[in-house]
Amino acid sequence: MSAAPSLLLRRAASSAARSFPSSSSSSASRRTFAAASSSEDLVKTSLNDLHRSLGGEMVPFAGYELPVLYKGIDEGGVMKEHLWCRADGKASLFDVSHMGQIRWHGSDRSTFLESVVVGDIAGLSPGSGLLSLVTNDDGGIIDDTVITQYGNYTYMVVNGATKHGDMEHFATMMERFGGDVEMEYLGDEVQLLALQGPGAAEAAAKVLPDGFDLTGMAFMTGTETTLDGIEGCRITRCGYTGEDGFELAVPASSAESLAAKLLEDPIVNPAGLGARDSLRLEAGLCLYGNDIDSTTTPTEAALGWTMGGKGSRRRTEGGFPGAEKVLTSDGKFRKSTRKRVGIRGMKAP
Predict the structure, then answer these.
(1) pLDDT tens, residue by residue, 132-149
(2) Is 189 known to sit in a ligand binding site?
């Protein structure tokens, strides 16, 4: 697979802002797993050959060809892949390379990010991160994102189906911003793997450098490291299954070898889009385009906590798009007429 060069966009670079491919709201919100057709121009991740060798049933998703499940392994199929990820001492490996990875540079990057997302970015210490929401002027959610602060840049992961629209939005907001900020889109030259499950730490430790202390690595923290001797990698303790886990960013040229190394471990099983969806649903985690969209506010989505607790700076100061539609002048949540809720299933009598 040829790696796309990273794209660096400086504030007020209007010609660069127009260079992002458009993403219609209908295609961005579509969340179906359909059979891939040869006529579709789908991007293949660095793990495509590995997926096929494991019997991956490939489908189009967010413009990429990804496995919905695996047929060539004993523990394949959505149900088995789901249960493996929940089992004690086990871990599942997901290819999430379709996600958008962005590095933010510049002395005013935290100030800029707080003008587009609801979270306390300025308060993040190096290596710490949070889940946040990109909002529009009505307070609706454009996307959800994980943001991690590093020493000289800020790392952001956005959804694959919305990433191009997100970057168009960021480019527009940068043109209005008066400070020092740059957006670097990593394209497909950096792939992303998610290692999830009760045994994820045990499996991850086997590819980390000697002496790396995973026991001291808290949830929603990350660091640059080597993985199986591969330079230029990052590990973040996070995920979207409801289990302990890690997201591993790795150069595209080495992604397949890292995945193959992890899968040599008998506690690690590959898992596809189907199990990823059922796991996040079981854990009560939102899927953009299904559970939340641009008409859903953070409070309607039951995600008001992403703005901080009562009396927190972001809730009292606002400053993000649509803040006045969601918060009162003293930082309290405005009343809404709808709210996302979970429904717990039960066995038939």
Answers:
(1) 999 999 999 999 999 999
(2) no
